[in-house]
Structures are given as C-alpha cells and as structure tokens.
Design brief:
Blueprint (H helix, E strand, L loop, with lengths): L1 E5 L7 H10 L4 E7 L18 E6 L3 E6 L3 H12 L6 E8 L6 H4 L1 H11 L4 E6 L9 H17 L7 E6 L8 E5 L12 E5 L5 E5 L13 H6 L2 E7 L6 H8 L13
Parallel strand pairs: 1-2, 1-5, 2-4, 5-6, 6-7, 8-11
Antiparallel strand pairs: 3-4, 7-11, 9-10
The protein binds manganese (II) ion.
Length: about 260
C-alpha cells in the first residue's frame, strides 16, 4: 500500500504525526504537507507564486516534504513530482477540529483529499472535533481511523470520492457506532466577528467559530457527530445539484390560453 499523507494544520501538527505513526504498518508513506498552517484555506492552489519545497526529518527516522504552499498544492506536487510511484490512497489529517456541514468547503484538509479524488484516487479526510479547548487523543483516533479505512477500502472504493471521516470529542473507548451520513448545511462561522484595535489604533476584525447549530437535523454529519458517533460522508468535486438540473430539463406545461410556440 502506497499512501500520500498531508494536512492543512502544517507539518508540525500533532494530528498528522499521529496518523503517520498509525499508518506506518500499512505500507510506504510519503508525507507532503504545508510548512505553515492553512486551516480554512479551502481549495486554493498557487499559480502566481513559486512553491518552495524542503525535505525535513519527520517521525521516527523518516522524512517529509515541507511545502511552502497550500494543501491542494501539496497533493498536486506530490503526485506530479515528489512521488516516484502513484499512491493507492491519499489521506489528509488528522485535522485539529471537525470538518462537517458547510465547513467542508472552507477546509484545507478536505480540499487536499478532494485534490486526490480529482486525480482519480480514493481519498480520506480525517478530522477530530475539539470543544472547550480539550485536546483529542490523536494517537488513539489515528489507530481507530486505520481500522475504519481498511474496512472501507476492503469494501471496494469508488475512485474520485473523498471519505470525509469525523471523530467526536470523546475518548475512543466511548465512541458510538460509525454512521454514514449526508453533509449538513450547518455553518459555524455565522458572522461572529470580534472588533479590536491594533497597537496603532486601527480597527481589525477576527472571525470566531461557534459550535455548529444542528438546525433540528437528526441524521446529518453534524447531528450525529455531536451525539458521539464517528461519521463518514462520501464527497465529490462535482457540485451540480441534479434535482435543479432535472427541473430545468423537464418539459414545461403550456399555460391555458397561452400563445402556441413555433
Ligand atoms: Mn486545520
């Protein structure tokens, strides 16, 4: 098994280091991750700036590519240049914080996995809900994720899909069952800005994250995650709303008394 491992919190984050250790028995891991945090950086790619890359020590005697670019840059570059062989799977995470609801659009973690999916590879985004400043047990989550990923891959994956996996903020021994769930439309960044002044007296704003509202939903990724389930949501890069397309294509009834066409 050849794995491309990346994240959006940066190479030095605890989450990616835990995944590296847990996935090591699986096969050959190439790590290519941003050298700076790119959380909520979305699916940006660098087209107007250089992308410097350095090889740095990583994990127990391993090495990683530290990329001065975005999470999607890391995946693009790894597939095109840094890896000798194409990986079997792309894994992105473990993100420090959940990526559910509309956050999948802001998330660099999910975007890195989506970049793998765009290239036709199966891909996993892995994130851990963090609430009240509690630090998740990344090592235990990484080991539990490995088992789950093996089960999903053994079941036969669809290439071009991201399996967006989220862990709740409870110990791994108390996790509720894994639930496959649709993405919620819940937004945790509802325009909660704090306004302050910098040392020169000029105003600035800082966007704050609030807990995801569940909006009365029962079976979405957000609703199940906050109840303590591990959630898996299959995502793709085609954002077409097929029901809207079908509605436009359906022949429209002619209005009674309306002009005949043609
Ligand atoms: Mn992050």
């Amino acid at each position: 098994m050849r794995i491309l491992l990346t994240n959006d919190d940066g190479l030095h984050a605890e989450g990616i280091q835990a995944l590296y250790a847990a996935l090591a028995p699986w096969g050959e891991i190439t790590v290519a991750a941003p050298m700076r945090e790119c959380s909520a950086g979305g699916h940006a790619i660098s087209t107007a700036t250089a992308i410097p890359v350095r090889q740095v020590p990583f994990g127990q005697g391993g090495s990683a590519y530290a990329v001065d670019g975005t999470p999607a840059d890391c995946v693009k570059l790894a597939l095109a240049h840094l890896m000798k062989h194409r990986p079997d799977v792309v894994v992105s995470g473990i993100n420090h914080g959940a990526n559910v609801g509309v956050c999948v659009l802001y998330s660099g973690t999910v975007s890195a996995a989506l970049e793998g999916a765009i290239e036709g590879l199966p891909a996993f985004a892995v994130s851990a809900l963090m609430r009240r400043g509690r630090q998740p047990d990344f090592d235990a989550i990484a080991r539990r994720f490995k088992t789950l990923a093996e089960e999903i891959l053994a079941d036969g994956v669809q290439p071009g899909l991201v399996y967006n996996v989220n862990f709740p903020d409870r110990s791994v021994s108390r996790l509720k069952a894994v639930r496959w769930a649709p993405q919620s439309r819940s937004v945790p960044f509802g325009g909660h800005f704090v306004r302050r002044r910098d040392p020169r007296g000029r105003p600035y704003y800082w966007l704050l994250e609030k807990p995801h509202p569940t909006n009365g939903e029962k079976a979405t990724d957000v609703a199940l995650l906050v109840k303590g389930h591990v959630t898996v949501t299959p995502l793709g890069c085609d954002m077409t709303r097929h029901e809207a397309l079908r509605r436009r294509r359906r022949p429209r009834p002619t209005k009674p008394g309306g002009k005949k066409r043609g």
